[in-house]
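Hey, I'm writing a tutorial for new members on how sequence and structure tokens pair up, and I'd like a real worked example in the thread rather than a made-up one. If someone can provide the structure for the chain below, I'll link this post from the tutorial.
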Amino acid sequence: MKARLKNLKDRTITGLYSLGEEIVHGITHGIGAGLSVAGLTLLVVLAVLYGNVCQVVSFSIYGSTLVILYLASTLYHSFQEPGVKRVFKIIDHAAIFLLIAGTYTPFLLVGVRGAWGWTLLIIIWGMAILGVAFKVLFIHRFQKLSVLAYVLMGWVGVVGAKEL
């Protein structure tokens, strides 16, 4: 019982993670952000050298959303002040929608292409924009609906998979 109470006292302001866990999250997600910047740079350089405009744009979008996600998560786990943490939590959770859409972008613009690729791209980015707005307005509410939105966005790929 005493160990459990001590553990609760060690929790950060949010009550979700201990300070040690938050430090580890901040460091590992910071490493992810750095690797994302490296990956973005490599993708764009290779697309510029060997690809076309569509590849440069789509890889830039994908890489940028990956950087945004890891950077937002790093900042969320690095600050303990409640107001700052709340803002970064909103950005962190909203960035998941952006990354899902960003991940689809190269597949739809480079792989699927044409009217079908553009249609799915508009649908997925429309869902992402709605998801970001949802997170900004309702960060602590409707958790199951939020997870459902992530899953539905993930399943959009099944519709376009035949074209790949």
